[in-house]
């Protein structure tokens, strides 16, 4: 089944075309009011472990290895992955993240995992 997944910084304004909005960070993004986030779900359990997040440090040179390690974590995190897949079965989902780097972040890696898994 092909899922309709978008990825977006939580700092961008919500749009009707976002579908269900799911924050996939373990830590709430600084400067965002919960009422303004228009979240369907905050699924912090699907975020990378603190150890992996700190190791990665948003270093593009560690991106490929980060994705491999995060996939291993996701494979072991069946409950959170199943919860997100259930939301995806209902229609379009926008995965939200707080990082500055739009190309190298856990939401991008998670979208790739969900599309390929």
TrEMBL record:
<dbReference type="Pfam" id="PF22752">
    <property type="entry name" value="DUF488-N3i"/>
</dbReference>
<dbReference type="InterPro" id="IPR052552">
    <property type="entry name" value="YeaO-like"/>
</dbReference>
<protein>
    <submittedName>
        <fullName>Uncharacterized protein YeaO (DUF488 family)</fullName>
    </submittedName>
</protein>
